[in-house]
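Lab notes, practical 5.
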Amino acid sequence: MPSKQDLLDLQFIDVRHKLIDIAAFLDRIDRHPGEPDYRYEALQKALLTLLLDRPDRARAVLESLSDHSTGVTERAPFQGAFGAALPLIADH
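Output from the prediction step:
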């Protein structure tokens, strides 16, 4: 079993790259006009989860970005995925 030091030696540069890539993405969003949609908020919440001291961060991030709805959609608006759950819209 590798030690924490072994894992850092093997994966630190890759993870560092990913964090810089995320920061650059957020900077690009901030530089452009308009308001970001629900996916931006979902990413912010997921990023906060990374800072928590818990053993299941990966699962928590995945769950925070997953659609937990149980209803059946009669027709999909397009073929693909949004990557984050659509916000619930209250019926009026």
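Observations recorded by the TA: The chain has a mean pLDDT of 88. The helical segments are 4-31, 38-50, 57-64.
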